[in-house]
Structure formats: structure tokens, C-alpha cells
Amino acid sequence: MHQVKWTLGKEWHDEQIKRPPDQRHQILKWFDAMHELLMRSGSDSGNREGVRSARASGDAWALLTLAYDIFHLLHRGDLPGGLVDRLRKEDQFQGARYEVAVAAIFVRAGFEVKFVAAEGSKKRCDFIAHDPATGIDIAVEVKSRHRAGVLGQPGQIEEAKAVRGDVEGLINDALEQNPGNMPFMIFIDVNVPPVPGIPIQERAWFRDIWDSMQSVPAPAPTRPDEANALVFTNFAYHWDGSKPTSGTEYLYIASQHPKYPLTEALLGRIMAAVAAYGDVPVEM
Questions:
Q1: Contact residues for 35 (Cβ-Cβ < 8 A; gap 6+)
Q2: Cβ neighbours around 43 below 10 Å, total
Q3: Once rounded to an integer, what is the mean pLDDT over residues 232-257?
Q4: Whole-structure pTM over 0.90, yes or no?
Q5: What residues have CB less than 8 Å from 108, skipping those under 6 apart?
Q6: Which of 12, 53, 245, 255 has the fewest CB atoms within 10 Å, i.e. the most exposed one?
Q7: Is 214 domain-assigned?
Q8: What is the pLDDT of residues 61-73, one digit of tens each?
């Protein structure tokens, strides 16, 4: 977690600390929440003296997963300065944070990641994932659904809207970024509050997405899909706040007729890393 502070820089951190707690950047709020959690925790008699333990809150796990993602990109991937700068900016933090998450997923799946710089009006994906084992490149576009009052967004939370899977516009925007000369995957975080006890197939966001997918013309060998797969995630730790974290969920929709096919083994590696998101080992 110290690596997060080092990456964002001392000047930025010190400026944030001078602000009242409720006006700090989301990352600093997570650090404050982690500190409060540790102060409330008790000694762990099963460990060495001085070690304290507590069940992780949503805020604590939001910080820890961010730290784990940044660690992987610095250690084995690519974390450009422009992306770090977007993490610092409250109005750009959410999108940048999800790019970091998805890029780290590919790194943990064994890929090398190269972020793509903007070039005028030219179509571009967010990053290219290169698989050294097969030599295959995959273009990846990442989108995150913004919700009022969440992750630094202005306004108040609207509960009725917050649970919906209203991401059709994001899908269309993502398709526009397909470079068109290699396999292409889209990741969208629906950013909805968790609903424990309700099967994922019965969640409002799941039904919304499933219904919208049914209206899309079926691909065929003569009319292949531009995207190999759409992956919808809900990395909802921030919704849990000070409550115990409820984990993550995802929906994976793979094309049966993509323009540039990928093997099941390759897609399986990626999806195994998606399924394991939030699993942070005690030791590396």
C-alpha cells in the first residue's frame, strides 16, 4: 500500500493531507478508512505478538486491490505517467482506476501490457495485451459506468438508477475504439451496489444487460463479431464502505463467430484471472 503513495507522489499526497478529510481524494479516504479499521481491530492471538487482525471492510479492500494492481503493472507491465496523472484527478479517477484493474488482470494472466497513446481522432483501444507464449496480441477497451455520488462523482446517489445495467451506450462507445486488425475484447464495470442473497441472474443489472444482448443480431461466419468477448464486472468494494466486503461478480459473453478467433485456452486464462480478482495472496 505504500507503493500507492510512492507512485502518486509526495507532493500530491501532502497536498491532499492538508484538506479536510471529507474533501480528500477517494484514495486518501480509503487510507483513512484503513487506518480507522486497524485502530478498531484486536490482537490476533494466533499470530506473533503485536499483530492485529480485522475482517476487511469494503474501503480497505478497495485500497488493497488498487495497491495489488499497481504493484503488478509496475513489476511486470506498464504504468505510464499519463495514467498515473489521471488517477490523481478526481474527475478522471474512476475510469483510470478501472483501466489499471483490467490491465493488471491481463498481467496476472501472463500477458505483457502496452497502453496506447491517443493520436488525434484515430480509433484506439486502451491497451494491447501481448501473450509471449503464443505471440498473439489482443486489443482491449475498458469502460466504467459512472454513478452520481460514487467514486468522486458529483451529486447524490439515486438508488433506483444505481442498480441498473444501463451500459448500452458504453458498449457502443467501446466498439468504436476497435482498431480492427486483431482480436478485440471489451471490459465494462457496471458499478452497482451489491445485493447479497440474490442470485446474480436475478440482479437488475444482469437482466438489463442480458435483455439488451438478445436484441443484437446473431453473428455468423459471413457476418462475424467485431469483439471476441464482452466482460461485465462489478468490482463493488467501494459500495460496501465500512461494512465487510461482499466481493466481486462478473458476466462473460463470448462470441461464437469472432472476426479474429482466440483459443478457448487463451480466453480461459483471462477469465480465470477475472474470476480471481480480489484474491490478494499473503506472500508473493
A1: none
A2: 11
A3: 92
A4: yes
A5: 72, 273, 276
A6: 53
A7: yes
A8: 999 999 999 999 9
